[in-house]
Design brief:
Blueprint (H helix, E strand, L loop, with lengths): L3 E4 L3 H13 L3 E7 L13 E6 L10 H11 L3 E3 L9 H9 L3 E2 L4 H8 L1 H11 L14 H11 L3 E9 L2 E6 L2 H19 L4 E5 L5 E9 L5 E13 L2 E7 L6 H17 L4 E10 L2 E8 L6 H8 L3 H9 L16 E8 L1 E2 L5 E2 L2 E2 L2 E3 L6 E5 L6 E2 L6 E9 L2 H14 L1 E3 L5 H9 L1 H4 L7 H4 L1 H4 L1
Parallel strand pairs: 1-2, 1-4, 2-3, 4-5
Antiparallel strand pairs: 6-7, 6-8, 9-10, 9-12, 10-11, 11-14, 12-13, 14-21, 15-16, 17-20, 18-22, 19-21
Helix pairs in contact: 3-4, 6-7, 11-12
This protein binds adenosine-5'-diphosphate.
Length: 448
């Protein structure tokens, strides 16, 4: 087992990882930018070191500085959490050069799965169903038009290097397609430094269903069941639940086997997620996330597997603590992402000082949070400040508990997504599990 783990992240996920370290009796190291000098997460670590300038490129994305701190503090491993450097293959290589274990899959796997064109190609080869489209970059507009004519409208133009819902645009005809190619290329170039785009069929009302994968370095791979993440805004998840309300034993076996096949094909190790779009009885590989997901707690709750501790153990060379047979789904869990955003103004971020804070609790409630009264949410980073998770013996109980927990949750001083979540929990279509990825747009009136 490692002696000391540096957590290359901030906020709620840093606390989550530090908690796992403490339970494993491993020392932890926090890093913080000037904007996080008073952030509470640093108190959960055994040591903390400053990064200085708050801009992400100079702080949580500063590979050289973070490796230097790891060396100075004597950390023998780094956990990247999600976001920031979590899927940065250069970070993996630098860690390796310095004899530090990066808790996650191999750098080459991160690199291959980070490129959507490469990952689709590999999954097609593995025999996993993928969304219809070409597995090649669009070189010019004429070629794009031909490809879209072949696939049939509507189509979606995607940045190969895209992520976080950025670099995606739909087109319902040729005129829209030409605009979509140009704008996606420019967004991709600005955000990812790579203007490569490709086209695939746009599924109009799919469900987003994903599988949690865990693989060790001894050739064992299992899935820890499924999650449904169809409640999204701007292609980003807002509410997740596990298991998917439409999941049957047979479908879980089929999709789970596909997810394992995807992972085994690339010799995947550690925790990862295989994302699918599900439409009218068919499912298609969307992408593989080579890190722990924001929504991992709902899987932990229904399977009783501590995914972060499992990640740490696997990275230290241990065998998986579970076989596929040990994965038993118990009840239902829902996660609401609490973001400092104004849901009535198109979810624009609303950073600032939390003037009053009261957290919910009671039976079946888990809160992963990084904030408190008088905490100032910095404008530099993600607007997610906490995750409210409820468990119930069935979906209805999980929803009732979520309604109750949301009504107990008080955050004043900034706008949050709490009113949005309250409206969704009351929505009869949500209650009936009549979900798809455009749910929020379609039901906006009811939510407003
Ligand atoms: P990112 O890497 O930016 O998260 P993904 O490829 O995972 O992007 O897609 C995010 C979301 O975008 C999906 O959950 C879905 O809502 C939507 N999406 C992506 N591809 C398609 C498609 N071919 N058809 C319909 N919706 C899509």
């Amino acid at each position: 087992m490692f002696e000391k783990i540096l957590i290359a992240n901030r906020g709620e996920i840093a606390i989550r990882i530090m908690r796992a370290c403490r339970e494993l009796d491993v020392k932890s190291v926090a890093i913080y930018s000037d904007a996080d000098k008073t952030s509470i997460y640093t108190n959960y670590a055994d040591e903390h070191y400053p990064l200085g300038d708050p801009s992400p490129s100079k702080s949580y994305l500063n590979i050289e500085k973070i490796i230097d701190i790891a060396i100075d503090s004597g950390a023998d491993a780094i956990h990247p959490g999600y976001g920031f450097l979590a899927e940065n293959s250069r970070f993996g290589k630098e860690c390796e050069k310095n004899g530090i274990t990066l808790i996650g899959p191999k750098g080459s796997v991160i690199e291959a799965m980070g490129d959507k064109i490469t990952s689709k190609k590999m999954m097609r080869k593995a025999g996993v169903p993928v969304v219809e489209g070409t597995d090649k970059a669009i070189s010019d507009i004429d070629q794009g038009v031909k490809i879209a004519d072949n696939i049939g409208y509507p189509v979606i133009v995607k940045a190969s290097a895209g992520g976080g819902g950025i670099g995606m645009r739909t087109a319902y005809d040729e005129e829209e397609l030409i605009k979509a190619i140009k704008s996606t290329q420019s967004v991709a170039s600005t955000n990812f430094g790579d203007s490569t785009v490709y086209i695939e069929k746009y599924l109009e009302k799919p469900r987003h269903i994903e599988f949690q994968i865990i693989g060790d370095e001894h050739g064992n791979t299992i899935h820890a069941a499924d999650r449904e993440c169809s409640i999204q805004r701007r292609h980003q998840k807002l509410i997740e639940e596990a298991p998917s309300p439409i999941m049957t034993k047979e479908l879980r076996k089929e999709m789970g086997d596909s997810a394992i096949k995807a992972a085994e094909h690339i010799n995947y190790t550690n925790a990862g997620t295989v994302e699918f779009l599900y439409n009218k009885g068919e499912y298609y590989f969307l992408e593989m996330n080579t890190r722990i997901q924001v929504e991992h707690p709902i899987t932990e709750i229904i399977t009783n597997i501590d995914l972060i501790k499992e990640q740490i153990k696997i990275a230290s060379g241990a065998e998986l603590s579970y076989t596929q047979k040990d994965v038993v789904v118990r009840g239902h869990a829902i996660e609401c992402r609490i973001n400092a955003e104004d849901p009535l103004s198109d979810f624009i971020p609303d950073p600032g000082k939390i003037t009053a804070y009261r957290s919910p609790g009671g039976p079946g409630v888990r809160l992963d949070s990084g904030v408190h009264t008088n905490y100032v949410i910095p404008p530099y980073y993600d607007s997610m400040i906490s995750k409210l998770i409820t468990w119930g013996k069935n979906r209805n109980e999980a929803i009732c508990r979520m309604k109750r927990a949301l009504s107990e949750y008080i955050i004043l001083g900034v706008e949050t997504t709490i009113p949005f979540h309250k409206a969704i929990m009351r929505n009869p279509y949500f209650q009936n599990a009549d979900l798809h990825t455009h749910f929020v747009d379609q039901h906006k009136k009811g939510i407003d």
